[in-house]
Amino acid sequence: MNTMNAALIRLGLVMTAQAASLSVTELLADPERFKRPPVIVSGTISNVRESGRTQPIYTFDLSDGTQTVRVIPFATPPCQSGTVTVEGAFEQLRRQVSYVSVEITARNVICTPKAE
């Protein structure tokens, strides 16, 4: 593990320790409560996607096995699968009259190391 990755993991652990981590289900059960403050949500990453023409934009799904929320990280996700902790801003966006999109704009995505 290089020095930069080790520093990011330590930073992530410190930030995670400062606020309680939520499940996706807890987040979506009371979305109004979590609209403004930063949230820390843990779950399983899946369906990592890249789009954008001139600059890549990444998105992925974060699930706790019951509910799923879309995550938009600022950079390439450090892992494609497994358990992650995401720190960022939670938003509910009205895309159409009857459709509301929920997403987290992530400042940090921390992959949980796999047990060996």
Low-pLDDT segments: none
Give a count of the beta strands, DSSP E runs of length 2 or more: 5
Oligomer: single chain
Question: Which strand order spans the largest sheet, edge to edge or round the barrel?
Answer: 1-2-3-5-4
What is the CATH class designation?
Mainly Beta
Structural class: alpha+beta
Distance between the termini: 15 Å
Q: Please work out how many helical segments DSSP would assign.
A: 2
Q: Major sheet: size, sense and barrel closure?
A: 5 strands, mixed, barrel
Secondary-structure arrangement, i.e. CATH architecture: Beta Barrel
What global shape is seen? globular
Strand/helix succession: HHEEEEE
Supply Rg. Answer: 14 Å
Helix content: 10-25%
Any idea what the CATH superfamily is called?
A: Nucleic acid-binding proteins
Which strand-content bin applies to the residues?
over 45%
How is this structure best summarized?
This protein has 116 residues and is an alpha+beta fold.
SSE map:
Blueprint: H1 3-18, H2 24-29, E1 38-51, E2 57-63, E3 68-73, E4 82-96, E5 99-111
Parallel strand pairs: 3-5
Antiparallel strand pairs: 1-2, 1-4, 2-3, 4-5
Would you write up a description of this structure?
It is a single chain. With 116 residues, the protein is an alpha+beta fold. The chain has one domain: Nucleic acid-binding proteins (OB fold (Dihydrolipoamide Acetyltransferase, E2P)), CATH 2.40.50. Helices cover 19% and strands 47% of the residues. The chain is built from two helices and five strands. It has a five-stranded mixed β-barrel. It is globular and about 45 Å long. It starts with a helix and ends in a 5-residue tail after the last strand. The mean pLDDT is 82.
